[in-house]
Design goal:
heterotetramer; A mainly alpha (349); B mainly alpha (319); C alpha/beta (514); D alpha/beta (330); B: 319 residues; ABC transporter involved in vitamin B12 uptake, BtuC; 12 helices; 1% strand; C: alpha/beta; 3 domains; 6-stranded mixed β-sheet; 24 strands; globular; binds adenosine-5'-triphosphate; binds magnesium ion; cell membrane (chain B); transmembrane helix (chain B); transmembrane transporter activity (chain B)
C-alpha cells in the first residue's frame, strides 16, 4: 500500500472509529445514534445558514491551530495561545471601535494590532526562555490567567465600566451583508480568507524561506545551529513571537467578525486549548492544521444541533472528537494493520 | 489587619488552596520522571471530582462521614481508569504524548458532564452533605503563634497531601522502583539493557498520576466546591502542571511550588485589606499570583531540566 | 576446546533490509574473539541479537552447548552474557553505583542499600584495577572511565561472556592500552570476550581469532596469529586497502592561522588553554596530538568563535578574528569538522540535503533575498553525496539520523571541504569509522593541503597524527609543549610529550636513533 | 379558569410555544437561568404544553459564540416567544432581532432598546439587596458585615449598591467589607475571601458570585460545624439558598436570600404574549412593588425587630420614600 494512501486512510479510519464508539456510547445511554448523527450532520450541512456558521466556527481554530503548530515546529510548546488570542481580540476590538478610518486602512490596522498584541504577549515567554531558560510552558500558562484579568480590566476602562466594548465600526468589520444574505444571516465573515492566507503564509515561511530553515534547525538541535552560526536566542524569541501573532489574529476573527466586540470573559475561551488538538490533528503541517480545524470546527458546530434536534447532550461530540484524536495520534497501530493488510494483498496476487 | 493576623490568614489558606495541586502535581512528577508527558492532569482531576461527588451524593446516607474518604478511593479508581487510556496510547501505541494528553482533557470533561446529565439530568449536581471538614490538631494548636498558623482549622486532606509528597520523595529517590523509574525517563534503552521493563514502568507511573490526580480533583470537590459542574475544575490541572515544572520535577519541589501558588493567591485576596496595598488598583492584585510565579522563575529558579527521554515513545532498537 | 557461544546461521531483518544473513560465530572458552566489518556490516546487530535486544528471524544460539532463546537482556544476563554497547548505555545524571546496580538493586527493608553496593563496586574495581569512583556522577567523568563503568556493569552481574562493541572508538591511546590489559586480565579470570573494533592493530594485539562479516554476510573466521592486517582488511572490504596514505612532500606557503598567547577558560571559568601559540601555513597539515582534556576542545571553540577568548590574539590570513561571531569567522574562510558529529555537526532530524546546506543555506546561490531554493540545495547535496560516496536509504531525502556514523561523517566532510576554506579544522574526523572510510577521509584531508589550503587536525590517535600531519604540535595542559616532524619522532616519544615531559634532547637523540 | 384551559388543549393550532436559551451558566445554575426555566415550565403546565417543539423547551450555551446559533435555532423551530437569559446575550439578541423581525424575544437582565420585537426585562435587585443590607446591619453582632461579588459590573454592582445603602441606613456606623472574586466559578477563591472576612470579624456575608459563592457556604458551614454557637451567617442570592446552608438537621447558616423572581416575570410575559400583547420594544422592570424581587423567608433566623425594620423599609421603597442607588457610589 502506498505511503500516500496510508497517510489518507489513517485519519479516515480514525474518524470512523471515533464515530462508531460515539454511537455505542449514545446507544448505551439510551439514545438513538442515528438520530444523533443525523442531527450532527444537519448541524453542519443542513442549509446555507448552518454551513455559514460552520465555516465561521472553523476560522479561529485555523489560527489557534497554526499558532500551536508553528511553535511545535520550532521546538517550543506554546500552551499560551489562549492568552495571546485574548489579547489580540481585545486589541482588534479596541482599534475597531476607537478610530474612524477608511476601510482599506482601518481593517488592516485592526488586524495588525491583534497580531502585534498576540506577538507581544508571546514575546514574554520567548524572551524568558531564550535569556534565562525559563520553561515556556509555565510562563504561558500563567500568562493565560493574566490575560483574562487584564482584558477584563481594560474592557471596563474602554467601555466606561460596562460589560463589553462598543461594536467595531463598519470600516473595521470583517462582516459583509453579501455573505450574511448568501447564508441566510449566518455570521460568516471574510476572516476565513485571512485564515487561508495565514495557512499559505506559514507554509511558505517554514518550507521556503531562510528564516524558516533557521527556525526549524534551532528547534531540532540548538548546538548544531549555533555551530552553524545561527543566533539561537533570537530565533527562539522570533518563533514565539510569530506563533503569538497567529494567535492574536485568531482573536481578531472574533473581534472583527463573529462578535464585532469583546465582552468581559468569565473563563478562558477554549479556542487556544483546542488549538493544541487542531495542530496535532494536522501533524503540525499548515495544510494539515487547516483540515484539523475543519474537522474540529464542523463537529463542534454541528454538535450544537444535537440537543435541540435529538435531545442528546453536546458533550457526546467532544467525546467523539477526543476519541478521534486518540486514534489519529495512535496512527502507528493503524499503519501497521494497514501494512499487514497491504502485504497480504500483494502475496495473494 | 495586623501583620500577625495576615499570617494567620495567609498560611492556612495557602495550604488549603495548595493541597489538591500538590497531589496532582506529584502525580505529574511520576509520569514525567518515567518519560511520559502528562498534560491530561486537568481531565483526570475533573473525572476525580465528578466521580467523588456522584458517589458522595449517592452513598452519604449509608456511609455517613466516612463518605468523602471512600469518595477519594472512588475518584482514585476512576482517575486510574482514565489515565490508562493515556498509557495505552502513549506507551503501547506510541502516540504523541502531548496530543493524547489534550485528548484526555477533552474526554475527561465531556465524559464527566455527560454522565452527570445522564444521572441528574442537569449539568450541575446539588451540594453534598458529607464534606471534608477541618479540625484543630490537639496540643499542637495550643502552641502560641505557630499553633494558630499551622495547626488550627486543618483539613485532613492537606495532611494527606504533605504525606504523599514525602512518600513520593522516598519512593522516587530511595527505592529500586524509583531508581528504575528515573532511569526509564532519562535513558530508556539503558534501562532496557539492564533488564528494566520500560513499558511496565511507564504504565505504572501513568496510573499513579491517574490515582493522585483523581484524588486531587476529589479533594477540591469534596473540601472546597461541595458540588460538581462543568466549571468546578477549571485550570487547576494546568496549575498542577506548572507546579511540577516549577518544582523541577521533584516531589518536594512540586509541593513547594503549589504552596507558593497558594501563598500568592492568598496574598492577592488579603491584599485589599492591608494598608497601602489596598490603594493599588485591584487588577494588580488579581494578576499578582501569576506575575509572582513568573518573576520567581525568572529570578531565582532559572533553568530546569526535564527528564531527558520525557515525551519520547520508546521503541526497541531505535536511536 | 568447547564453545561457550555458538551463533549458527543467524538472520536478522529490518523491514526488507537484511542486516545479518546466515552468519555463524563460535566463541571458545577463554578466548578473545574479534568481530570485524565495515560500518553497517551488521556487527552491532549480530551482538544485539546475542544480547536479546533483537530477535533473529532464523538461526540457533547455543550457550555452553545448550540451545537457548534469548528473548530479552534479562535472559542474556542470566546466561552470564554481558555487553558493553557501542553507544554508552549510561544514565548521565546517575552515580556510577546507581548505573551499575540498576535492575538488580540490593535493598535493606525496601530501601536501596547504596553503601553496600558502592563497597561491592569498589571491590570489583580494585580487583580488575579499573579505578572508578563509585559515587561519581557519570556526566562528570571521562569517556574512558565511563567505558570502565560499562565493564563493571557486566562484571557486577557476574557475566563471564563479555561483548565489547567498539569499546576503543572514543578512547585515548593510554586508555586503549589499559583496556587491552583489562581484557587480558579478564581472560585470565576464565572469561570469554567478543571484541568489535575497526582498529586492526588492536585485533592483532589481543585477539585469538577473527570473524569477518561484509554487508551482512559471514566471510569467515581466521586465527589471528596466522593472518595479517592487510589480509584482514581485504577480507573485510573486499579490495586492497592502503594504510599509510602516501603523500607528496608538503610545500608550506604563507601563514594562514596565527595564534598568539591565547588563553581560554571552560564553562566553570578554569583556564583550559594557557597562552598558547600556534601557526598553520597554507599547504600544510598541522596535527595536534594530546590526551583528551588538555584544552583541545576549548582551543577549537575559541578559533571558531564558539567560546570567548580570555586574552590573546587569533588572526586568519592576517586579519584578526578574535571573538568574532561564528558566522563571521566561517565566512572569513574557516571550515570545521566538529568533534561530536551528532551534537554539533548535524541536525539529525533534517533530511540529508538540508544538512549539507547547513553552512550555506543563507547565501547565494541557495538563498535569494530570504527565500531558499531547495532544488538548488538538493542539486548541490546530490553532488557531494556522489563525490564523497555517502550511503543512505533515500539520498538527499533520507533523514540524517538513519545514516551510519561513517556516512554521517562523510557528509560533514563533504560539506566543509566543498566550501573550500583556507583553514580546515578536523577534530577526530575518523572516530568510529572503518579502515575504508578512514583511508577515504585521510585522502581528502591531504588533497586539501595539496590544493594549498591549511589543515588543522586534532586527534587522540597517534598513528593518525603520525601519518597524516606534516607537523605535529603536542598539546599538554593547555599549551603547546613541543612541535615535531612526524618523520623525526617516534610514537613513544610523542607519548612522553603528551604526558607532559618536555625533553628537547630526547627529540634530537630520537632523531639520531633513526 | 379551567374551562378556558381545556378549550385551549383541544385547539392545538393556536397553542403558544415558549423557549429559552441560557447563558454559559447553564439551565441549572441555581440562578436566573434556572428560575426562568421554572417559570416557563409553570406556564407550560398551566397551558398543557409538552416539552419540545410546539410546546416549551430550552437550549444551553456553553460558549459565547453559541448564543446567536442557539437563538436562530429556536426561531427556526418557530417558537412563538423566546427568552434570552442574561446580560451576556445583549449583542446576540440585538443582532438576531434585526434579522428575524417576526420573532418575539424577551431578554432578561439587560436592555436592548428600540426593537419592536424585543422586550427587555430588568430586576431592581438593588431594592431587595437594600432589604438584605437592613437585615444584615440589624442582625450583625460584630458591627461588621461583608459582601462578595462575582465579577465587577453593572449587574452585580446593583446588588452591592443596594446592600450597602440598606446597611448604612439601618446602622450608620456599620462596617462593610467588600471584595470581588472576579470569577463566577472559582469556589476556592470565594472561600478564601469568606475566610478572610470572617477572620476579620464580619459575621454576616452576602454574596452575588454564582458558584464562587459555594466557597462562602463551605467556609460558613465549616465554622458552624466546628463551633455550633459561632456567629456566622450567609445571605444567599437569586433564589432561596436555604438548602445550600444546611449544616445538619438542626442548624443552617443561611440568614435569608435575595430573591429575583425571574420565574414570575417569565410566566407573566409569556402570558401577555399569549394574549397577543407582547410588550415588544418596552422595558419592564420588576421591583419590590410587583414582588419581582424580595427576601426569602428567614425561617426564624432573624429577630422580630429586624423583620419589622425590613418590612418598614420595603414599604418605604414601594411608596418611593426611599430611592435605592442603582450603582455603587451613587
Ligand atoms: N534499528 C535498525 N533499523 C533498521 N535498520 C537497521 C537497524 N539497525 C541496523 N540496521 C541496518 O543493519 C545494518 C547493520 O547495522 P549495524 O549497526 O549492525 O552495523 P555495524 O556493523 O555495527 O556498523 P558499525 O561498524 O558502524 O558499528 C545497517 O547497515 C542498517 O542498514
Ligand atoms: N533506527 C534505525 N533506523 C534505520 N537505520 C538504522 C537505525 N539504526 C541503525 N541504522 C542503520 O545502521 C547502520 C549502521 O549503524 P551503526 O550505529 O552501526 O553505524 P555507526 O557507524 O556505528 O554509527 P556510529 O558511528 O554513530 O556508531 C546505519 O547505516 C544505519 O542506516
Ligand atoms: Mg555497530
Ligand atoms: Mg561505529
Amino acid at each position: 500500500m502506498s505511503k500516500r494512501a496510508v497517510n489518507i486512510l489513517v485519519p479516515l479510519i480514525s474518524i470512523i472509529l471515533g464515530l462508531v464508539i460515539g454511537a455505542i456510547v449514545m446507544a448505551v445511554s439510551g439514545f438513538n445514534p442515528i438520530d444523533g448523527y443525523v442531527a450532527l450532520w444537519n448541524g453542519i450541512f443542513m442549509d446555507s445558514y448552518t454551513m455559514g456558521e460552520t465555516i465561521r466556527q472553523i476560522t479561529p481554530y485555523i489560527f489557534s491551530g497554526l499558532a500551536v503548530a508553528f511553535a511545535f515546529r520550532t521546538g517550543l510548546f506554546n500552551i499560551g495561545v489562549e492568552g495571546q488570542l485574548i489579547m489580540g481580540w481585545l486589541a482588534a476590538a479596541w482599534v475597531g471601535q476607537a478610530f474612524e478610518l477608511p476601510k482599506i486602512i482601518h481593517l488592516p490596522l485592526a488586524l495588525l494590532a491583534a497580531a502585534a498584541a498576540g506577538a507581544l504577549w508571546a514575546f514574554i515567554p520567548g524572551f524568558l526562555k531564550a535569556k534565562l531558560q525559563v520553561h515556556e510552558v509555565i510562563v504561558t500558562i500563567m500568562l493565560n490567567y493574566t490575560a483574562i484579568h487584564v482584558a477584563n480590566a481594560l474592557i471596563g476602562v474602554i467601555s466606561g465600566g460596562g460589560e463589553r466594548t462598543d461594536k467595531v465600526h463598519e470600516s473595521a468589520s470583517l462582516r459583509a451583508h453579501y455573505l450574511e444574505a448568501m447564508t441566510d444571516y449566518s455570521r460568516l465573515h471574510w476572516g476565513i480568507l485571512v485564515a487561508l492566507l495565514a495557512v499559505v503564509f506559514m507554509w511558505f515561511l517554514l518550507e521556503r524561506t531562510t528564516l524558516g530553515y533557521e527556525l526549524k534547525a534551532v528547534g531540532f538541535n540548538k548546538n548544531a545551529s549555533e555551530y552553524a552560526g545561527m543566533n539561537v536566542k533570537k530565533n527562539i524569541i522570533l518563533a514565539m513571537v510569530i506563533s503569538g501573532a497567529f494567535a492574536g489574529l485568531g482573536g481578531a476573527m472574533e473581534a472583527l467578525g463573529t462578535f464585532e466586540n469583546i465582552s468581559k470573559l468569565h473563563a478562558a475561551t477554549g479556542i487556544g486549548f483546542d488549538g493544541i488538538a487542531v495542530a496535532l490533528l494536522g501533524a503540525n503541517q499548515p495544510f494539515g492544521v487547516l483540515l484539523g480545524a475543519i474537522l474540529f470546527g464542523a463537529l463542534k458546530n454541528g454538535g450544537l444541533n444535537m440537543p435541540s434536534e435529538a435531545g442528546i447532550p453536546t458533550e457526546i461530540v467532544s467525546i467523539v472528537i477526543a476519541l478521534i484524536i486518540f486514534f489519529i495520534a495512535s496512527g502507528y497501530i493503524i499503519r501497521v494493520a494497514l501494512e499487514r493488510f497491504g502485504k497480504k494483498r500483494k502475496e495473494e496476487k | 489587619m495586623s501583620f500577625l493576623e495576615v499570617l494567620y490568614f495567609i498560611i492556612p489558606s495557602a495550604i488549603f488552596y495548595a493541597a489538591p495541586l500538590i497531589l496532582t502535581a506529584i502525580g505529574g512528577v511520576f509520569t514525567e520522571r518515567s518519560g511520559v508527558v502528562n498534560i491530561g492532569l486537568e481531565g483526570i482531576m475533573i473525572v476525580g471530582a465528578a466521580s467523588s461527588i456522584i458517589f458522595n451524593l449517592t452513598f452519604a446516607d449509608q456511609l455517613g462521614n466516612a463518605t468523602p474518604w471512600v469518595g477519594l478511593l472512588v475518584a482514585m479508581i476512576f482517575g486510574i481508569l482514565l489515565s490508562l487510556i493515556l498509557a495505552v496510547a502513549a506507551v503501547s501505541l506510541r502516540a504523541d504524548q502531548t496530543v493524547s494528553g489534550v485528548a484526555l482533557n477533552m474526554l475527561g470533561l465531556a465524559a464527566a458532564v455527560f454522565t452527570v446529565k445522564m444521572i441528574y439530568d442537569k449539568g450541575q449536581t446539588d451540594a453534598i452533605s458529607e464534606r471534608f471538614s477541618r479540625f484543630d490538631i490537639p496540643l499542637l494548636s495550643d502552641i502560641p503563634i505557630l499553633g494558630k498558623m499551622f495547626f488550627v482549622d486543618v483539613y485532613a486532606t492537606s495532611i494527606l497531601a504533605f504525606a504523599v509528597a514525602f512518600i513520593a520523595w522516598y519512593v522516587i529517590y530511595k527505592t529500586p522502583f524509583g531508581l528504575r523509574l528515573r532511569s526509564v525517563g532519562e535513558h530508556p534503552m539503558a534501562a532496557d539493557t539492564m533488564g528494566v521493563n520500560v513499558s511496565k514502568m511507564r504504565y505504572v507511573a501513568v496510573m499513579i498520576s491517574g490515582a493522585l490526580g483523581g484524588i486531587g480533583g476529589a479533594v477540591y470537590a469534596q473540601a472546597i466546591a461541595g458540588n460538581f459542574g462543568a466549571a468546578t475544575i477549571s485550570g487547576q490541572g494546568f496549575m498542577a502542571l506548572a507546579a511540577m515544572i516549577f518544582g523541577k520535577w521533584h516531589p518536594l519541589g512540586a509541593m513547594g511550588a503549589a504552596l507558593f501558588f497558594g501563598f500568592a493567591q492568598a496574598l492577592s485576596v488579603v491584599g485589599g485589606s492591608i494598608p497601602y496595598v489596598q490603594d493599588v488598583p485591584t487588577i494588580f492584585l488579581l494578576i499578582l499570583p501569576y506575575v509572582l510565579t513568573i518573576l520567581a522563575l525568572a529570578g531565582f529558579i532559572g533553568k530546569a531540566n526535564a527528564p531527558k527521554a520525557s515525551g519520547v515513545p520508546y521503541i526497541k532498537g531505535k536511536r | 576446546m568447547e564453545y561457550v557461544i555458538e551463533m549458527l546461521g543467524i538472520r536478522k531483518q529490518f523491514g526488507d533490509f537484511v542486516a545479518n544473513d546466515n552468519i555463524t560465530l563460535q566463541l571458545k572458552k577463554g578466548e578473545i574473539h574479534a568481530l570485524l566489518g565495515e560500518n553497517g556490516a551488521g556487527k552491532s546487530t549480530l551482538m544485539n541479537v546475542l544480547f536479546g535486544l533483537y530477535q533473529p528471524e532464523a538461526g540457533t544460539i547455543r550457550v555452553r552447548g545448550k540451545e537457548v532463546k534469548i528473548t530479552d537482556p534479562n535472559v542474556a544476563n542470566k546466561l552470564g552474557i554481558g555487553m558493553v554497547h557501542q553507544h554508552f548505555m549510561l544514565v548521565e545524571n546517575f552515580t556510577v553505583t546507581e548505573n551499575i546496580i540498576l535492575g538488580s538493586e540490593p535493598t535493606k527493608m525496601g530501601t536501596i542499600n547504596i553503601k553496600d553496593a558502592a563497597k561491592k563496586v569498589q571491590a570489583l574495581s580494585e580487583k580488575y584495577n579499573l579505578n572508578v569512583d563509585p559515587y561519581a556522577k557519570i556526566e562528570d567523568i571521562s569517556v574512558g572511565m565511563q567505558q570502565r563503568v560499562e565493564i563493571l556493569k557486566t562484571l557486577y552481574r557476574g557475566a563471564d561472556i563479555l561483548i565489547f562493541d567498539e569499546p576503543t572508538a572514543s578512547l585515548t591511546p593510554q586508555e586503549i592500552t589499559e583496556l587491552m590489559q583489562i581484557m587480558k586480565r579478564l581472560i585470565e579470570e576464565g572469561k570469554s570476550i567478543i571484541l568489535i573494533t575497526h582498529k586492526l592493530k588492536e585485533i592483532m594485539e589481543v585477539s585469538d581469532r577473527v570473524t569477518v562479516i561484509r554487508k551482512g554476510q559471514g566471510i569467515g573466521t581466521v586465527v589471528t596469529a596466522e593472518s595479517s592486517p592487510t589480509q584482514l582488511a581485504e577480507l573485510m572490504v573486499g579490495r586492497q586497502v592502503v594504510f599509510k596514505t602516501e603523500k607528496i612532500a608538503p610545500n608550506p606557503k604563507e601563514i594562514v592561522l596565527q595564534i598568539d598567547s591565547l588563553t581560554v577558560a571552560d564553562n566553570r571559568g578554569v583556564d583550559k588553554v594557557k597562552n598558547l601559540n600556534l601557526t598553520v601555513r597554507a599547504g600544510e597539515i598541522v596535527g595536534i596530538a594530546g590526551i583528551d582534556g588538555n584544552g583541545q576542545s576549548e582551543l577549537i571553540e575559541a578559533i571558531t568563535g564558539l567560546r570567548k577568548v580570555k586574552n590573546g590574539k587569533i588572526t586568519l590570513n592576517g586579519k584578526e578574528i578574535t571573538n568574532l561571531k561564528p558566522r563571521k569567522i566561517t565566512e572569513s574562510g574557516v571550515g570545521h569538522i566538529p568533534q561530536d558529529r551528532h551534537k554539533h555537526g548535524l541536525v539529525l532530524d533534517f533530511p540529508l540535503g538540508h544538512n549539507i546546506a547547513l553552512q550555506t543555506y543563507y547565501k547565494q546561490p541557495i538563498s535569494k533575498n530570504g527565500v531558499i531554493n531547495y532544488k538548488k540545495v538538493n542539486e548541490i547535496a546530490r553532488n557531494i553525496i556522489e563525490q564523497y560516496d555517502v550511503r543512505s536509504g533515500e539520498g538527499v531525502m533520507s533523514i540524517t539520523r538513519s545514516l551510519s556514523g561513517g556516512n554521517q561523517q562523510k557528509a560533514i566532510i563533504g560539506r566543509e571541504v566543498e566550501r573550500n576554506p583556507d583553514l580546515l579544522i578536523a577534530a577526530l574526523p575518523t572516530r568510529g569509522l572503518d579502515v575504508g572510510a578512514i583511508e577515504f577521509i585521510h585522502r581528502r584531508l591531504i588533497e586539501q593541503r595539496d590544493n594549498g589550503k591549511a589543515v588543522l587536525l586534532i586527534s587522540f590517535e597517534l598513528d593518525e597524527v603520525m601519518n597524516v600531519s606534516d607537523e605535529i604540535a603536542v598539546i599538554y595542559d593547555g599549551y603547546i609543549i613541543d612541535t615535531v616532524k612526524p618523520q623525526e619522532t617516534t610514537e613513544n616519544e610523542l607519548g612522553l610529550l603528551m604526558a607532559g615531559q618536555s625533553l628537547q634532547e630526547n627529540t634530537k637523540e630520537g632523531g639520531q636513533h633513526e | 379558569g379551567g374551562g378556558e384551559e381545556t378549550e385551549k388543549k383541544e385547539s392545538s393550532e393556536d397553542t403558544f410555544s415558549v423557549a429559552m436559551i441560557t447563558d454559559t451558566g447553564g439551565v441549572d445554575d441555581k440562578s436566573f437561568n434556572q428560575s426562568t426555566w421554572e417559570g416557563i415550565q409553570e406556564f407550560g403546565k398551566e397551558n398543557g404544553l409538552e416539552k419540545g417543539d410546539g410546546g416549551f423547551d430550552y437550549l444551553q450555551s456553553s460558549a459565547e459564540s453559541e448564543y446567536v446559533t442557539n437563538l436562530n435555532n429556536l426561531i427556526r423551530r418557530d417558537f412563538d416567544l423566546i427568552f434570552a437569559v442574561g446580560f451576556a446575550l445583549h449583542n446576540a439578541v440585538a443582532e438576531v432581532a434585526d434579522q428575524q423581525p417576526e420573532a418575539q424575544i424577551a431578554i432578561i437582565d439587560e436592555v436592548v432598546p428600540d426593537k419592536e420585537n424585543v422586550a427587555s426585562i430588568m430586576f431592581r435587585a438593588n431594592e431587595a439587596s437594600y432589604l438584605a443590607g437592613v437585615a444584615a446591619a440589624q442582625e450583625s453582632k460584630s458591627g461588621k458585615i461583608g459582601f462578595i461579588g462575582g465579577m465587577t459590573g453593572e449587574i452585580i454592582g446593583g446588588f452591592e449598591a443596594g446592600y450597602v445603602a440598606g446597611a448604612k441606613a439601618a446602622n450608620p456606623d456599620i462596617e462593610i467589607d467588600i471584595e470581588y472574586a472576579e470569577s463566577f466559578t472559582d469556589a476556592a477563591k470565594g472561600q478564601q475571601i469568606a475566610k478572610r472576612m470572617y477572620d476579620s470579624g464580619a459575621d454576616i456575608i452576602f454574596h452575588a458570585a454564582g458558584n464562587a459563592g459555594n466557597g462562602l457556604f463551605t467556609e460558613a458551614k465549616e465554622r458552624k460545624q466546628k463551633d455550633p454557637d459561632a456567629n456566622v451567617w450567609v445571605i444567599g442570592v437569586d433564589r432561596d439558598q436555604y438548602d445550600e446552608g444546611k449544616v445538619d438537621d438542626s442548624t443552617n447558616v443561611v440568614l435569608t436570600s435575595v430573591l429575583k423572581r425571574v420565574d414570575v416575570a417569565a410566566k407573566e410575559v409569556a402570558n401577555q404574549a399569549k394574549e397577543g400583547n407582547f410588550p415588544g420594544g418596552e422595558l419592564i422592570t420588576y421591583g419590590l412593588a410587583d414582588e419581582g424581587v424580595g427576601l426569602a423567608d428567614p425561617r426564624g433566623a432573624v429577630s422580630e425587630e429586624t423583620v419589622a425594620a425590613v418590612e418598614d423599609a420595603r414599604q418605604k421603597i414601594i411608596d418611593g420614600e426611599i430611592t435605592v442607588p442603582e450603582q455603587p457610589g451613587e
